[in-house]
Amino acid sequence: MRARKTVEFNQVIGDFPSDQKTFSAKIKINVTEKDILFNDVGMIEKTINVDTDDVKTQNFTYNIELRENRFGKTWGKSAAIFEVTIEALVTETIRYIPDVNNGWLKVKITNGEIVSLPAFLKVQSGYIESGREYFTILEGQYKGQKASVSLDNANNGNSRLLADVKHEPLIHLRYSISQKKLIIGNKKYKATDHAETPWKKGRYDIELPDYPHLGGEYYENRSFRAKSWFRVGHDGERYLHTGSHSLGCITITEIEKWNEIYNKLIKARKGDFLSVGVLEVVD
After folding, report:
1. Closest CA to 226 of 182, 247, 257, 264
2. For residue range 257-270, what is the model confidence (pLDDT) as tens digits?
3. Closest by alpha carbon to 190, among 211, 209, 175, 208?
4. Which one, of 137, 122, 99, 43, lies nearest residue 228 by Cα?
5. Which of 95, 105, 208, 219 could cysteine-pair with 226, CB 3.0–4.6 Å?
């Protein structure tokens, strides 16, 4: 490296969560200039204080003096000065589950159980340890629980979680019992229900997908979202899903169009940390 030359490493030192106004961290910087016989070395230890309310890049610059080191002792009067700048950037720790494996990411919750979380579910990133990222689930049936997931080895060991997802306002759906149609905006989709367990007219919340339903496995060759079902109401076993028949649910029989319906629902939010929208059942 020549004198007065600048080199950018662009390497992330780490991600550190904080709930304090000021985040403080001790740093140790070692610089070694390799020579044929004896290396020139320098080191400093400092504490940086990051204002967590400031979203602009915060720079911390240090001058490190290097002298020739022989057998653990400095030698000679000449010295080189290296200027090292560390950048700190404060970002929101809200993250989202990625859209993988047909819309489901397997994670481990604190009791050791492996569960599947739906795509775009909101979480709060915590910390990384031993090749796993730990986070808190902020919505859905596991809301409030701690969980972890392995880092993405296919992406240089980076986080699997997404940062750039934007949720949308709640969505309104209508289901016509007489027409056997699900209506979303100006689009109608063929559907069916179960005559022996008729739906009562009224309004029902539509929940986020809870887990991959095996009942959709048979249809995955026609819709890769077929295992993603949306429960209608907050109790019972009635869902909005795709398939060829119904045992009490509202079943979309146009299976190839289920992906389209899924895409309209999966990022919508009602604001109760559980629902994507409202279904109105009419004649």
Report:
1. 257
2. 999 999 999 999 99
3. 175
4. 99
5. 219
The CATH number of the domain covering residues in 169-282: 2.40.440.10
Is there a contact between 152 and 137 (Cβ–Cβ < 8 Å)?
Answer: no
Going by their DSSP bridges, the two strands 181-184 and 171-176 should be labelled as: antiparallel
Distances (CA, A) of 239 to 49, 124, 205: 51, 28, 11
Q: How far apart are the C-alpha atoms of 149 and 147, rounded to whole Å? A: 7
CA-CA distance, 105 to 118, in Å (whole number)? 7
80, two tokens? 């080189």
Measured distance CA(211)–CA(196) in Å, rounded: 26
Are 125 and 95 in contact by the 8 Å Cβ rule? The answer is: yes
pTM of the full structure? 0.73
Q: Is 54 helix (H, G, I), strand (E, B) or coil?
A: coil
Structure tokens belonging to residue 268: 């919508």
Cα(first)–Cα(last) distance of the chain, in Å? 78
Q: 42-47: long-range contacts (C-beta < 8 A, 24 or more apart)?
A: 42/66, 42/67, 42/82
Is the pLDDT at 1 greater than 70? The verdict is no
